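worker-3 :: picked MADF domain-containing protein
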Amino acid sequence: MEWSKDDCLMLIQEYQKYKLLWDAKDPFHYSKTKKHDAWCSLAKLFNTDHEEVRKKMASLSGSFRREKAKGKKSMGTGKGAMEVYISNWFAFKSMLFLADKDQPRPTLNTESVCINVILIIANNNK
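worker-3 :: tokens ->
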């Protein structure tokens, strides 16, 4: 299938609706069958097979990561506002919903959790 810019933008818009495909925090993200069903639903919208849609999204995601990295790399110490890279790639703004998907979850302070567990056990044994 030949993908026009409009097709790509529509694919991104539809892909965003299937959070389980791109958000690791989604409860169904690790369900192969649910993800396969989602890819098939997307493929049906574009009258193509699910592998074609998957490959196109992988390609678009790679381009988005590249553009995001260029912007991040250009924001060094001592750089002026005019030196910061601003992407002109046609799908960049449409894919910004993926910008923070790689942010780590807040860490858990295991020391305080252990202390709380010990206190609960101690109180229950009294």
